[in-house]
Amino acid sequence: QVQLVESGGGLVQPGGSLRLTCVASGDKLGQRTVAWFRQAPGSEREGISSLSGVDGSLIYIPSVRGRFTVSRDDAKNEVYLQMDNLRPEDTGIYYCATAIPHLMSFRPSSYNIWGQGTQVTVST
Length: 124
Description:
Elements: E1 3-7, E2 10-12, E3 18-25, E4 33-39, E5 46-51, E6 58-60, E7 68-73, E8 78-83, E9 92-99, E10 113-114, E11 118-122
Parallel strand pairs: 2-11
Antiparallel strand pairs: 1-3, 3-8, 4-5, 4-9, 5-6, 7-8, 9-10, 9-11
């Protein structure tokens, strides 16, 4: 079974950048869908991107489109979230999650394997 571990979070000023890494172990990601979620204090977990392992289709929510970029390195079994022009409202715990192939969704219930999360704080 695949296990996921996120890293790369931290404290950054507004307008700054961070690159998160999701490392998969235990099995290849293969054609599985991989998504990034975030959860701000007191808020529900929010899906922000979903990447298909079948055809590379990629979707983002409007608030991060043009600022965040997802990529995947199958040789390393890793997925990345490059976050640029960060805003205070991007603050939260960021999670990667994976689901069966062909399923692309922003719903947390669609994903059955999760990492432990990494904290991102955007503040002066």
